[in-house]
Amino acid sequence: MVFDFLRRQAAPVVPEVKASATGPVIAWQGGGRVAWSPRDVVSLTRAGFQGNPIGFRAVTLIAEAAAALPLVLQDHERRYDQHPVLALVARPNAVQGRADLFQALYAQLLLSGNAYLEAVPGSVVGGGRVPGELHVLRSDRMALVPGADGWPVAYDYAVGGRKHRFDMTGGTPICHIKSFHPQDDHYGFSPMQAAAVAVDVHVAASRWSKALLDNAARPSGAIVYKGPDGQANLSPEQYDRLVGEIEANHQGARNAGRPMLLEGGLDWKPMGFSPSDMEFQKTKEAAAREIAIAFGVPPMLMGIPGDATYANYQEANRAFYRLTVLPLVARVTAAVSHWLAGFTGEAVELRPDPDQVPALAVERDQQWARVGAADFLTVAEKRAALGLPRIAEE
């Protein structure tokens, strides 16, 4: 009886749950409420992308190059030529292909530091349910709702006065990809934020140049009339005749560099920009270089003058792929692969294939030659060093 009483009073066994000890601290003040982004994505996008040619070119160059990078699907045993995930990625929805979807995904990540991918429920294939469609959602319309443990329990997508909530407790309909942010637990930090000051300087310099042309543009020179009797004004006939001769004989591309013959009483005074006016062009070029550096694009590829960091254009293009495009694609495809594995139940990995990138052909040839000539490595070790799946050795 005593032992029965002890058994009845024993506490039930609770399964161990692994979680970070800091999660409840993070969500203590905002648990269950929307965590709004601390930056104005709309204003940064309008000023740095839609209203600035350097920011537009940097984002477009990275997004297009990353979206055009060949992708392969493999696991630890083989590389797939046909797979439901490959078919889904090749045609993610009715209006977009693989390049269009990933270009929008990369652009959202570069502009806001966050990228959101929505999975539409699909059909059952094998032991899992493959999404029927994939859609990229606008980052400025998405708001994260953290739970009591600090992890997101929902995402609110608001358009105008309407709002739709994606519940993350019963599944993962949203794939949230974010860049590292040192001072935010829920949202990422975008290169556009780091380049915001340079964007303001570049836009201000462009507006100053436009205002100079509109309001204070200086002509190439002036013709000053000094009459014989101190008279400073031309007669109407003389003025019309002088203007007609200048338009006919000294203006336009046909008359460029043609000497001017002035009659008595007329003096030519050349005019130009002051040194302070010319400094604005250097300031504008320095701001453009800072914007390109923030996004990881060599200034030489952007057509910015005065950059001699790289020996030639080919070296700059190789550094662009190696240091910017490949790390971005590897990080995004790894997140998408892990997210899709929750639907399919297969441990497959979607990754970029650097062997098919023309800009990296020289480096890959050297790497293949070094690995192939290494006699102390087995075939399996060589394949692992090249990023290929393992196969059974003979």
Defining traits:
Arylsulfatase, C-terminal domain, Phage/GTA_portal, 2 domains, Phage portal protein, single chain, three-stranded antiparallel sheet, alpha+beta, 394 residues, 13 helices, 13 strands, Portal_HK97
Structure description:
By secondary structure, this protein is of the alpha+beta class. It has 2 domains: 16-198 and 311-356, no CATH class; 219-271, Arylsulfatase, C-terminal domain (2-Layer Sandwich). It is built from 13 helices and 13 strands. It has helices spanning 2-9, 23-26, 41-50, 53-67, 84-90, 98-112, 191-194, 196-215, 236-249, 275-295, 313-344, 361-372, 379-385; strands spanning 71-74, 79-80, 114-120, 124-125, 128-129, 133-137, 142-146, 152-159, 162-167, 174-178, 221-225, 266-270, 349-352. It has a 3-stranded antiparallel sheet. It has a 3-stranded antiparallel sheet with strand order 6-3-10. α4 crosses α11. Pfam families: Phage_portal (PF04860). This is Phage portal protein. It comes from Fertoeibacter niger.
